[in-house]
Amino acid sequence: YDGSDMWLRYPPVEDPGLRDRYRESATSIVVENAGQNPVHRHTRNLRMEPGAREKLVATSLEAARDELDRGLDGLLDRDVPVTERPGEPVPDGAVVVGTPGSSPLVRESVPAADLAGVGEEGYVVRSVTRGEGGYTVVAGNTEVGALYGTYAFLRLVQTRKPVTDLDISESPKIRNRHLNNWETVRLYAGNNADGTGGLNGENGSVFNFAATGPSAGRNLPVVLDRYIVVARALASTGINGITVNLVNADNVYLTDAYIEQEAALADALRPYGVTIALSINYTAPTDPRFAPDTLTEAQLDPYGDAFRGWWNRRARTIQQAVPDFTGFTVKANSEGQPGPQDFGYDHGDGANGIGAALEPLGMTVYWRTFVYDADVDSDRLKRAYLEFGPIDDEVQEDGSEGRVAENVFLQTKNGPLDFQAREPVHPMFGRMENTNQALELQITQEYTGQNTMLAYLGPMWQEVLRTDTYATDEDGGLLEHRRVGDIVDGTAQGHPDTAIVGVANLGNAANLTGHHFSQANLYAFGRMAWDWTQDSGRLADDWVRMTWSNEGPVADTVVRMMTGSWEALAGYQTPLGIGHQFAADVHYDPYPSQWFVRDDWSPVYYNRADSAGLGYDRSPTGSNLAAQYFPVLRERYSDIRTTPEDLLMWFHHVPWGHRMESGRTFWEELVGRYQTGVQYVTWMREAWDSLEPSIGARRFAEVREKLAAHEADARNWRDTCVDYWREFSGRPMPVDQGPASASVVVNGQEHGGFDLSEDSYTIPVPAGAS
Ligand code: BDP
């Protein structure tokens, strides 16, 4: 098995007793009126793999029915009959799926008031008892809700949980659970000039648009079978939207030839509740490809009819082909992309100009806040708030505060730099009281080991989402709900619309993500987008059971590997808050001594290594990024004694002899972090080896090979960085402190399983050094 069904493979339940019990609880599948509301129109345009056409479904209920059929047949290892009309009474053990509108049975079985509570996308999964027997109902107010419920029911069997006496009600905390697909990121390791290889796993993007050449816009639909796997995987976690092209956008995606193909893709995804959006360029209206409908640069006034009219026409054209088209993702005045500032306007003007064009069409703008420019302030990390804060504070003519329109999200990365393994949270969360804010997380492991390192990012996102911003109200009183998740889901400040965005990692590798374990990051993102309060360890456990094994000790070992893997990565990449030490052109290997073409892309700019210490002073004696946070965090980060040690060098130039909580010096602690990070990887590799008898040969070997490379590369991080820091610290290499210091703490829980005393802190000294 090659991993190509992701976590939706459905191998048989091994334990015969348990399988029999499940068989009693799932004797037949009942989906009334499944084909009533066809939702696709363009799929006839698709060129399909042989056999793919019959897998296409037209409605979400058909998708639910087919998933249940496939899932239960596999898990229960028998043919579970599917019926539209069960007859009276419903057979014992039936699984009934539907909405009150589609299914009289659902109407009868679930009181309207119970369903009302779960909203448009939620579901109820309930056991209905009747004398000795009974059946299970999976109900949503909408077909998509019922589909989500179906996946939840299947997950119970996949993870070997009971399916009797069920009474589950679920609804998403965040409305837009969205992906950004960076279909080509040519910069990074393994990316070939022809668009193959790269960040998203081997062989380019999952959607395979051709950007140039005679087949431009024409080869999208060939691999439809894979799209349906993706659609199912997304729906199974509750992801409901995807921007299909890279944020450094190519205008070709707005051309008619592409729109036709995007429509076909949207039709294939729609039954699974996934809508599409596009990344756009602010200056697309001037592109001659749209002639005769093109504007001059002088017409790019975001308040002008020409600009707004152009975007409205383009969006309307898309909407004709894709009726539920979501809107646009915009990267403007960022890393060389054009934007309103090139024409004398600010981000608020630009975002609102496009927002106004889309508003009559019911569409949304995701305007990214990833902006920085060496000219504005010496510290790149302060730039976003400096630019967007005043727009949020601005008092409008009607007396209201904040200029950004209601149908615009400001989309902000979790941290103020750029997706490092650990960053403080972005100071803008909570400070944009009058603006809809979307949180952007990077699922694809650009800076977290790409597709070589095993890094489960669930714990990082959990840390981010649970971080207390100490946000205050207008009078300076602490808000009751003020964690990042509370702000993103709208409860903190009552934002009308809510969104969370993940930069996705789907490629054309057989297993779609390159590293088998990278699938877990997509999975965890989707589940956390639905409910950010979920525990990342629990989600890992679900994924492992669905993907690898339900054998207790095997599952436990794999979960344990995963839960500490991010902290280990942070240990050898960003220990104690030293960020951006990557070789600037690949974002994989370390290169702490590098000066690159721009200061703020250079590791030395971030590490500030000298004989006094290490780290970037962002306290009041330095750039004072700390001042951008609410008072409690401002004070905490301003003082080296109160800054959390994991974030120390984000805010301070730390003296080599600084005394740490452990009693060790900063230098000793730093080396220790590198070392424990590497040791965890060694432990993971050994733990994986012990699982050989329980894992299929192909996937076992593929992961084993990745872990070997991972270990070598983690050692390289440790050795390269420590050797370099040592030149400045002038201190001797610390010696092993023994097992007591060997644990890796993840979200307050200790992980480990390795013994530090087996290895010492001794790091190879480079030739020529004394
Ligand atoms: C950085 C990537 C760059 C992206 C940028 C962004 O290196 O390719 O375009 O993020 O988010 O991490 O726009």
TrEMBL record:
Residues 6-152 form the Alpha glucuronidase N-terminal domain. Keywords: Carbohydrate metabolism, Glycosidase, Hydrolase, Polysaccharide degradation, Signal, Xylan degradation. It is an enzyme of class 3 (hydrolase). It catalyses: Hydrolysis of (1->2)-alpha-D-(4-O-methyl)glucuronosyl links in the main chain of hardwood xylans. Its EC number is 3.2.1.131. Residues 157-511 form the Glycosyl hydrolase family 67 catalytic domain. It comes from the Bacteria. InterPro entries: A-glucoronidase_C_sf (IPR037054), GH (IPR017853), Glyco_hydro_67_aGlcAse_N (IPR005154), Glyco_hydro_67_C (IPR011099), Glyco_hydro_67_cat (IPR011100), Hex-like_dom2 (IPR029018). The keyword Mitochondrion does not apply. Residues 513-735 form the Glycosyl hydrolase family 67 C-terminal domain. The keyword S-adenosyl-L-methionine does not apply. Belongs to the glycosyl hydrolase 67 family. PANTHER family: ALPHA-GLUCURONIDASE A. Homodimer. This is Xylan alpha-1,2-glucuronidase. The lineage of its organism: Bacteria, Bacillati, Actinomycetota, Actinomycetes, Kitasatosporales.
